[in-house]
Amino acid sequence: MANKEDLFKKIIAHSKEYGFIFQSSEIYDGLSAVYDYAQNGVELKNNIKSYWWKSMVQMNENIVGIDSAIFMHPTVWKASGHVGAFNDPMIDNKDSKKRYRADVLVEDFMAKIEGKIKKDVDKARKRFGDAFDETEFRATNGRVKERQAKMDEISKRLYGAMDAEDLTAIKELIEDLEIGCPMSGSKNWTDVRQFDLMFNTQMGSVSEEANTIYLRPETAQGIFVNYLNVQKTGRMKIPFGIAQIGKAFRNEIVARQFIFRMREFEQMEMQFFVRPGDELKWFEHWKAKRIAWHQALGMPAEKYRFHDHEKLAHYANAASDIEFEFPFGFKELEGIHSRTDFDLSAHMEHSGKKLQYFDPELNKSYVPYVIETSIGLDRMFLTILSQAYNEEKLEDGSTRVVLNIPPVLAPTKATVLPLTKKDGLPEKAREIMNELKLDYNCAYDEKDAIGKRYRRQDAIGTPYCITIDHQTLEDNTVTIRDRDTMLQERVAIADLSGLIREKLKIQF
Ligand code: GAP
């Protein structure tokens, strides 16, 4: 496979060519960091949603779902702390005219040092074989220690400056590290400025009366403001959770990396309400549950890691990211946060409504503590695509491009292919397809040679191809071809649906 940058470009091109993702408003040259999901993309996206919803809501008796509005009362965002504080430090390069997030420039610089450490570790592992002890090597190797110390020093300066909102100190750090513009190499920087991430608009017909309202930057607040309604109408007992999937909007400063950082995106969030004092136990519980969710899809364990936050947001007493190794490195895919009682208490204060829970076992009322799990749907989509895209060299010397999407998430589960367009094969194929499509998303294809049709299905990740040939007309059997192994098996038509169901099974 080509280098990682090439791989990423190929994934983007493939997404367009095979109807997964298009640039929004492409005929008008596109809108930056906004994307449309195409015919195959929307199926994959819906399948990811459904896998999440099933495992979070339907498999847990104490978690229910909601679908709250995108527009909310403006005071919600004052209470949540977003108004005036939801911003990122940005910096412009005066020569290239490119804009960057100042903290990300420094983080990318640190990632390069980390990459060098990893290279040293990998080399040593090869040299020492089974006897290799990574912890000891990191603690004793002079060069690694020096690099680690440099990283620690940069991290201390960066997060210290971010916490203190000291924009001058961030600029000094960029200059001291001699960080150049990633596009042009120029070190001619503007000062660092704060950039508000919330989109706003006006609600109301008469401009004097109109209220500024915001497009929500996270779905979580829709859950917090409905906490009491759900608890009472659902007779929920602590511990319990409320989940939702929905759009969120952030006016991101830099929006590169395809669907990794978008201005309009979708989140799948769950707030789990617990007794004060129990939150760290539940925090660990949800960390374990969520990583298991990712790995149940058969994704390689070494591509995931936790990044526990040392610096915590003012409302959190523990936080960890699940990071995935995208083609551009390990990056945040999901956040798990112990948000204390910050949000409910803030809404209580701003709304004047009591948002407490009466705990019959303790015989007292309290404001519940909250553990949040928050994953970007689009990032999950990119995770699947990054892992699935493969260029395979075949025995005959040709290359096939295949998307090894976990079968349960694949846009089309099975495509029905008559071997030829005559002799009643198409009619038989349609008959089978009409049966199967009641259970699965299926497709039909009779155009081109069978080999070419298989390749087409490989490229969109269809796990099973069902071929109807002359023998089918005699004994009601078909061949079923497995996308990953390319092996074909002859099976009875009557067994097809059950067979596919078995293959799509997943352990939540
Ligand atoms: N309610 C908590 C919250 O919103 P966050 O870390 O800001 O926390 C949660 O976002 C997740 O949403 C991230 O882990 C990421 O997967 C996704 N996300 C955040 N900003 C995004 C963006 N601009 N584009 C795509 N996904 C994004």
Describe the structure.
This protein is an alpha+beta fold and 508 residues long. It has 3 domains: 260 residues, BirA Bifunctional Protein, domain 2, CATH 3.30.930; 110 residues, Herpes Virus-1 (2-Layer Sandwich); 92 residues, Rossmann fold, CATH 3.40.50. The chain is 38% helix and 25% strand. It is built from 16 helices and 23 strands. Strands 3-9-10-16-13-12-11 form a 7-stranded mixed sheet. β7 and β8 form a beta hairpin. α2 crosses α12, α4 packs antiparallel against α6 and α6 packs antiparallel against α7. The longest helix is centred in the first third of the chain and has 27 residues. The radius of gyration is 26 Å and the shape is globular. The two termini are 32 Å apart. The mean pLDDT is 94.
Overall shape: it is globular
- Residue ranges: pLDDT <50 for 5 or more in a row? none
Please list the strands of the largest sheet in the order they lie side by side.
3-9-10-16-13-12-11
The gyration radius over C-alpha positions equals: 26 Å
The CATH homologous superfamily of the largest domain: Bira Bifunctional Protein, Domain 2
The percentage helix is 25-40%
Distinct small molecules bound, one entry per kind: glycyl-adenosine-5'-phosphate
CATH topology of the largest domain: BirA Bifunctional Protein, domain 2
